[in-house]
Amino acid sequence: MVVRRLLAAVAVIGFGSLAVAQDATANDRIKVRYGFELGVASTNGNPSWTRASVGKLRDYNSDLPLRGFVDLRASFSETVELAAAAELGSDPTARETGLTELYLSWRPVPRSRLRHRFRIGAFYPRISLENTEAGWTNRFTPTSSAINTWIGEELRTIGAEWTVSKRLSSVGQLSITSSVFVKNDPTGSLLAWRGWSLHDRQSTLHDRVPLAPLPLNRTGAPFVDQAPYVAPFREVDGRVGLSVSGQWRSPSGYLVRSGFYDNFANPDALKDGQYAWHTRFFHFGLSVPVSDRWQIVAQWLDGNTEMGPTVNSKQAVDNDFTSYFVATSYRHGPSSWYIRYDAFRVVDRDFLQTDNNNEDGFATTLGYRHRLNDRWSISGEWLRVETERPIWAFNGFATQRAESIWQLRAHWRR
Asked: 227: which residues sit within 8 A by CB, 6+ positions away?
């Protein structure tokens, strides 16, 4: 397994070097950013969800944590660009290596004070305030918050997006984004049947995320047709989803972002072992530059997901979900520190007594990063998550558990 991870790192560097060579011959029309992370880690807690169990964290004890990314931008003109991003790794889950984004963007020449941007393809919705670096990597610490972990797992806009923005003199810039999308029908299934988690893995566009055995998909149970995994980006019911968000950025760096998402899925639909989950949520985020060194970031997400038939005005699976985090970062020269507090919850509202998806939890993350030069940096992280989830008893685990991870990583970027 270690050899596979080293080969993945070589693949990242090799692919990037080839692209950079092409870049030089294309008059800067092709720009590539790529990198990898290699380190050591130790986890303590339930067996990981990556091994079809119930743990909240990735299991690194038997392997080296390594992930790579390639982020490519190819300009066809001053207004049209093709973008692609890929994850490279060798996680115990089967399809960690592959494309995470692929889209075409168009920024027409402005004819008024309004600026427009159109995207079509597969890309992340504009929600995260942590994962803003190349390859949708986290700018603060290796492990993302519960909110942004879930976005990386189950959310992608696979469709079309329109953003219109306007600069409001000295007040800043205001923008509104709307999108229509397909192939996001299983979204919500992980929150209901596995719960929230915290890690750095992004689902690829052809991914399968494993599920622990469930009381609802065993022989004779109501949802026996559910595959032992979630394929997040599948079209199940032929319906189109919608999302709308707004953003304000001040000249001094304050950022406020808020929006709404609804996939309008048919909760009775089933295809190829994947159910359609009607999932909708609101989100809000705030980034405050307290000073040149201090920054505060906070996000909140709240919604509902439901699936299956309705009996006596109640859905077979009906879960409210919510999560928030508050974090602060401090930077001094080449070093930066990061502290984050997460809280998350799932509230089961359906009529199936055997499917208790209630969950309460919180997590604390401490991170440190030191930049050695333009390409190399090192980081350390400690994270502890405490969770109460009654359904764990079905899998033979205690219903309350504290899990932790510490890790050291070397990061290389180009």
From this structure: 208, 272, 273, 274
* CA trace torsion 227, 232, 235, 239 (10° rounding): 120
Query: Which tokens in the block code for residue 285?
Result: 């985020």
**pLDDT digit string (tens) for 177-215?**
999 999 999 999 999 999 999 999 999 999 999 999 988
Query: Structure tokens of 114?
Result: 């309004």
- Answer whether 245's CB lies under 8 Å from 126's CB: yes
What's the whole-model pTM score? 0.92
Residue 312 near residue 339, CB atoms below 8 Å: no
The token pair that represents 229 in the structure block: 């995994």
Rounded Cα distance between 121 and 22, Å, is 24
How far apart are the C-alpha atoms of 367 and 142, rounded to whole Å? 8
Phi/psi of residue 139, each to 5°?
-85, -5
Q: How far is the C-alpha of 89 from the C-alpha of 112, rounded, in Å?
A: 45
Return the structure tokens found at 98. Answer: 């592959």
DSSP E strand stretches across 273-389: 274-275, 278-289, 294-311, 314-332, 335-348, 359-371, 376-388
